[in-house]
Amino acid sequence: MVFAANGMVIPLVLLALAVPGLSILRISLSGLARTGAGWALGGWLVLAGVSLFWTPAPGDAADKLFRLALLWLGGVAALSAVNAADHSLMKWFARVLPAMICLALGFYWIEIVSSAHFTTLFTGLQEVVQVRYQTPEEQEFFRALYGFGAISRGAVLLALFVWPAMVCCRRLFPGQGKWLALVLGAAVFTTVFLLPMQAAPLAMAVGCVAFLFAWCAPRRGPRLLAGLMIVLIAVIPLCAYQIARPEALGVAKSALPGSWQHRVEIWHYSAEKIAQKPFQGWGFDASRWIEHGQTQFVLESPDGGRQTFSGVGLLPLHPHNGVLQIWLELGALGAFLAALFVFGLERRLASFTADYGRFAGAAAAASAASALTIALLSFGLWQSWWQASLWLTAVLCLGAGRAAKSVSVQTESSNREKVAYP
After folding, report:
1. How many C-alpha atoms does 375 have within 13 Å on its Cβ side?
2. Which phi and psi (to 5°) does residue 299 adopt?
């Protein structure tokens, strides 16, 4: 997770968890088809398949769509496996998940203290920077920069997985569990705050707000958050189109870091392309091919200077915003399905809270809010590792809820035995 978060590790973990659930996959798909989220997922697959007729690279898009469908089936199977697991396995799960988070934190702190030494060692980065940069100072700067960049995406996984781990902590130790959960959450936030992936601490902060909403108002909280997300789905393209430059918000573009300047340009350019085909979209996975190699990013400096990056376009592979990517590729109908998915997710969170308790429900809402925050700021929506991470987050939330319920049931049973047989 630390060294290969965006590789094949996460999809392979998800598929491994899916194996026990394959025998009941058909039943699970039947149940999913009766939910809003299920209709949205199925609609996306159908719409993406139809859009292959007008997407710029239908062969590549068809391959990605096939892999995406397999991942989604694997995610449903993994959820089925966890839902059908026995209580003893859930008790084991409640112990392992917090331990794995702590182990990952240990690896990250080793890298933070050593300036990404082990990443440099494992990836052969030292040899690369020695060839590319001349002075020792430049070599050390870029070694640390690229080294932390290689592991920073794993910070996103910590920001998502810590919430179900906190549920496990609270249920394993009924007396001190809430404090252990708080310490674990604070440790993860501190760790991801020190890494270059700025979306991770922001996602945790949004997750905290969602947790409080869902805890204080188990019914209205998730409903309010879902309503806010549906509004964002509708207005984000309009906002990105109208705000051509940050000066519209009273912020000088030259004062922003280079990565933020690029992100603003990406979003505005994507909104312009959405306006050209607002209803049908450009086709599934079209983002990477729209005017490929024909645009250039220009960095503005506070002193008035401008630097053109010839190899960096205004739409590098994807818009770095899941809502914009859906609008851009699948059009208004795809955006409607996104709103339907959020509505279905809210309904599932409501039933999840009823089934597994208020704390588990609030943690699931926090995980969902954290995931949506990251999806609005980073990564391509259809990337295999990111899709697998989202499904794995759902699997861990379900596992934590079932583990908490199993521990509670066993504790109550033990207390009854003590009363009956003093």
Report:
1. 25
2. -90, 130
**In sequence order, what DSSP letters do the residues of 56-94 get, joined into one string?**
S-HHHHHHHHHHHHHHHHHHHHHHHHHHH--HHHHHHHH
Which of these, 317, 343, 340, lies nearest to 329 by C-alpha position? 317
pLDDT tens track for 109-150: 888 887 777 777 766 666 666 667 667 766 666 666 666 666
Q: Which residues contact 366 (CB under 8 A, 6 or more apart)?
A: 163, 207, 208, 210, 211, 214
Specify whether the backbone of 350 is left (phi greater than 0), alpha (psi in -120 to 50) or beta.
alpha
pLDDT tens track for 211-239: 999 999 988 888 999 999 999 999 999 98
Residue ranges per domain, the chain? Answer: 9-114+152-409
What six digits make up the tokens of 197? 């992936």
258-276 vs 220-242: helix crossing angle, rounded to 10: 90
Both ends of the chain: CA-CA distance in Å? 47
Contact 288, 231 (CB under 8 A): no
From the number of C-beta atoms within 10 Å of its C-beta (0-12, 13-18, 19+), residue 268 rates as middle
Going along 249-363, which residue ranges are E strands? 297-300, 306-309
CA dist., res. 45 & res. 42, Å (int): 5
- pTM of this structure: 0.88
Tokens of 35: 């939910």
Give the DSSP letter string of 113-172: HTTSHHHHHHHTHHHHHHHH--SHHHHHHHHHHHHHHHHTHHHHHHHHHHHHHHHHHHHH
In terms of DSSP H, where are the helices of 173-311? Answer: 177-193, 199-216, 220-242, 258-276
